[in-house]
Specification:
The protein has 148 residues and is mainly β. The protein is 10% helix and 38% strand. The protein has a single domain, classed as Jelly Rolls. A hairpin with a 6-residue loop joins strand 5 and strand 6.
Amino acid sequence: MITRRPITTLIAVAVVAVGLAFGAPAQPVAQFGGTAVTASSGNVANASAVATLAAVAGKTTNICGISFTSSGSTAAAVVSPTVTGGISGTMTFTYATVAGVTLANAAQTHMFMPCIPASATGTTIVVTLPALGAGNTNATANAWGFQF
């Protein structure tokens, strides 16, 4: 299936690509006619941290980056955060929590260049960091992107 994007999307991506090729800092694509969107799970304790880039009728949501931060848990564990709703299907990552409830886990950030569009117009993109286990009192998931 061929997905058609508005010409403004193609122009914005081309401008950013040319800028990167010549060493210029990337400008937010949203300034070329899109709307910037962000989402955060807020702080959760031993529960799934979910950040949702909500769908808007007639617009395509694009995810440009995600981040996960958290404190440790009673026991060390490894979980698989996911991004769903993207054009290429579910993306799965690996995130580890250390043993020690007052310790900090390493923050994890992923930037997507180019940004990844939703699988269809009017589709939500959801970022989920699974529960990190007993003793975990702080976990957050964040996502950002734009809509055209």
